[in-house]
């Protein structure tokens, strides 16, 4: 309130008008941090990714247990992909340690992940890049993103007569 008196402002409304511009931006962040968000929800937006994660009952250090957890998440995500015919080009593995430090590993391909085996191999390679862990892992997650259409046939069609068309 010293600011108001030293400026010759005595009415509360005048004080608010004077200092509000300085603090207005912070109010939005304060509300969001408290879970107050009044923006409209759009439940029909286009989904950009699909993922699944699990928290272990205890911190895991055994590579086989960690890998098994990742593969369970792959199965969950793959069921979603098949049900909706949405297949992605990017696979992300999320790892959260017991101390809550979080890392991610991701790999993208030119074509969509077309088979469960391909999805499992990508996720397995990503989790193995951090194994054996230096500390216990509490959570793992797998996400697929960068959606394309349904998996294409295995044969690649090359343009015929490319030289003739270019001429």
Number of domains: 2
Determine the CATH superfamily of the largest domain: DNA polymerase, Y-family, little finger domain
The CATH architecture designation of the largest domain is 2-Layer Sandwich
Low-confidence stretches: 153-157
The order of strands across the largest sheet is 1-4-2-3
Number of extended strands: 4
Q: What would you call the structural class?
A: alpha+beta
Strand coverage percent: 25-35%
Rg from Cα = 26 Å
What's the helix-strand series?
A: HHEHEEHEH
The rounded distance between the terminal residues' Cα atoms is 80 Å
Helical residue percent? 40-55%
Q: So what's the CATH class of the largest domain?
A: Alpha Beta
What fold name stands as the CATH topology of the largest domain? Answer: Dna Ligase, domain 1
Question: Any descriptors?
Answer:
5 helices, four-stranded antiparallel beta sheet, alpha+beta, single chain, 167 residues, Dna Ligase, domain 1
Question: How would you summarize this macromolecular structure in one to three sentences?
Answer:
The protein has 5 helices and 4 strands; from the N terminus they run H-H-E-H-E-E-H-E-H. The protein is of the alpha+beta class.
Structure, explained:
Helices cover 40% and strands 25% of the residues. It is α+β, with helices and mostly antiparallel strands and 167 residues long. A 4-stranded antiparallel β-sheet has the order 1-4-2-3, covered by helices on one side. A hairpin with a 4-residue loop joins strand 2 and strand 3 (102-108). The termini are far apart.
């Amino acid at each position: 309130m010293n600011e108001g008196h030293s400026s010759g402002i005595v009415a509360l409304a005048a004080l608010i008008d004077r200092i509000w511009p300085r603090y207005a931006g912070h109010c939005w962040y304060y509300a969001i941090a408290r879970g107050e968000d009044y923006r409209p929800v759009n439940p029909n937006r286009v989904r950009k990714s699909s993922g699944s994660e699990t928290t272990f009952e205890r911190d895991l250090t055994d590579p086989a247990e960690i890998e098994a957890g990742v593969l369970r998440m792959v199965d969950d995500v793959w069921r979603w992909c098949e049900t909706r015919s949405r297949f992605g080009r990017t696979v992300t593995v999320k790892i959260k340690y017991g101390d809550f430090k979080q890392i991610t590993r991701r790999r993208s391909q030119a074509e969509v992940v077309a088979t469960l085996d391909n999805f499992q191999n990508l996720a397995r390679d990503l989790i193995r890049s951090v194994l054996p862990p230096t500390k216990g892992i509490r959570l793992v997650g797998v996400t697929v993103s960068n959606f394309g259409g349904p998996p294409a046939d295995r044969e690649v069609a090359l343009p015929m007569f490319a030289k003739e068309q270019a001429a």
